[in-house]
Design a protein that fits this description.
Distance between the termini: 62 Å
CATH superfamily of the largest domain: Cytochrome c-like domain
Largest sheet: none
CATH topology of the largest domain: Cytochrome Bc1 Complex, Chain D, domain 2
Helix content: 55-70%
Shape: elongated
Number of strands: 0
Number of helices: 6
CATH class of the largest domain: Mainly Alpha
CATH architecture of the largest domain: Orthogonal Bundle
Length: about 100
């Protein structure tokens, strides 16, 4: 039979292992919207701060969402942005726009 000291040590070790695994899993998960926004980086730069095209970082999530919905509706023509916008659901657009709005300019 296991002594109470050994049992307690095993319990503490198991709790520490579970806590460290949870911390690792938490850091491995990307923030919502980040992966979706990675499609934007080719033209708009890393984290939406790129040169040449509109800077998306720090823009209002509401404004970004409206602009993307306008692209989806064809109000901005049928260029590459309209085609990109068509690939997202409203929920995905909200996550993407929220993440970009939280990036520093």
């Amino acid at each position: 039979m296991m002594s109470s000291r050994v049992a307690l040590a095993l319990l503490i070790a198991a709790a520490a292992l579970a806590a460290s695994q949870a911390a690792i899993a938490q850091t491995a998960i990307s923030p919502p919207g980040r992966l979706l926004a990675s499609n934007c980086f080719q033209c708009h730069g890393t984290n939406g701060k790129g040169p040449g095209f509109d800077k998306l970082a720090g823009k209002s999530a509401r404004k970004l969402f409206k602009e993307m919905k306008d692209y989806q509706a064809g109000k901005e023509g049928d260029g590459i942005m309209a085609r990109h916008a068509m690939g997202y659901s409203d929920a995905q657009l909200r996550e993407l726009c929220q993440w970009l709005s939280q990036q520093r300019r």
